[in-house]
Every structure is written in structure tokens, then in C-alpha cells.
Amino acid sequence: MRTCRASAAGRLTVVLATVVVVAAGCGGGPSPRAWAASVCSALTPWRAEISRLTSSTDQQMTAQTTPAQAKENLVRLFDGAERASETARRKVEQAGVPEAEHGAEVSEGFRTSLAKMRDAYGQARDTIDDLGTGQPTAFYDGVRAAVETLNKEYDASALDTTRLSSEELKRAFAEVPECR
């Protein structure tokens, strides 16, 4: 058993060393303007989808539907929000790391924020999916609690741009048409 672990650890070390060497040799990421344009292009459809889903969720919370119908609709809505958040996170990741002061930190902040939002939607979906629909009052109380938790997690996942300041990126976000 020991040989197997040592061998696996050795292979992992070689792979990690190769990744570090390849990454170090790549040099430069996108310019601040190109990166900002890519990020805004990723976030614009995400914001629109989240807005649409939020509106639909609000309608579901006030609609006269059965608990089973509400559950099905809410699970589908939160699943859509989770998928939209992951799509946006992947697109931000694909944008790379901008060639700017604190570029890696800013990029990581965007990806982490979107991942936390994705996870919050997934948790809300799972919580509602686990609710029974036999007792309407208990079901709707559970939905309200899930939405309250989602709102808290969503707020906590917001990107704190005050800590991720980069004058180059601020200027890029203000200038590129994709961010307007």
C-alpha cells in the first residue's frame, strides 16, 4: 500500500510541477479592457436570467397554486438560477486573469462570488425539493425559510469591490461598451 501512495504522490508532484512550469511560461493574460468586456459579456445574460427568475419566484410566492405545483415551479426556477450562475462563473473563468494590478485577486473574487451564488441557489432548490406538500402551511413556511436563507447567502456572496481595487480594471469596466 505504501508504494502505491508514494507512486501516486510522485505522479501528482510531476503533474503539479508541469502545470506550474507551463503556467509560468504562458505569460500575460488579457488586457484589462478585454477582460472587462469578457466579464460583462458573461454577466449581462446572467443578470437578465436572475432578474427573470426572481420575478417568476415572486409570482410563485403569491400565486394561487397547490403546494405541489409551487414546489415543482420553484425547484425548476432555482435550478435555472443555479445553472445560470455556473455558466457565468465558467465564462468569467474562461476570460482568464487580467494583466492588471491585483488581476488574479479580482478574477478570483468574481469566480468565488458566482460560485457562492450558484451554491445558494442549489441549496434553496434542494431545501424546497425536500419539503413535503401534504401540509400547505408547513410547506409555505418551509419555502419562506428557504428563500430567507437564500437571500442571506446571496447577500453574503456579493463581491466586495472595495477590497479588490485596481484602477486599471475600474477604468476598463467604465469604458468598454459591454459594461454599459
What's the order of the H and E elements? HHHHHH
The overall pLDDT average reads: 82
- Biggest sheet record: none
Residue stretches low in confidence (pLDDT < 50, at least 5 long) are 1-26
Please report the total strand number as a whole number.
0
Quaternary structure type: single chain
Count the DSSP helices: 6
Structural class: mainly alpha
- In whole angstroms, the N-to-C terminal distance is 58 Å
Give the strand content: under 5%
Question: What is the share of helical residues?
Answer: over 70%
Description of the molecule:
- This protein is an all-alpha fold and 180 residues long.
- It is built from six helices and no strands.
- It has helices at 2-26, 32-62, 67-94, 103-129, 136-156, 167-175.
- Helix 2 (32-62) runs antiparallel to helix 3, helix 2 (32-62) packs across helix 6 (167-175) and helix 3 (67-94) runs antiparallel to helix 4 (103-129).
Note the main attributes of this structure.
180 residues, single chain, 6 helices, 0% strand, mainly alpha
Give a topology summary:
Layout: H1 2-26, H2 32-62, H3 67-94, H4 103-129, H5 136-156, H6 167-175
Helix pairs in contact: 2-3, 2-6, 3-4, 4-5
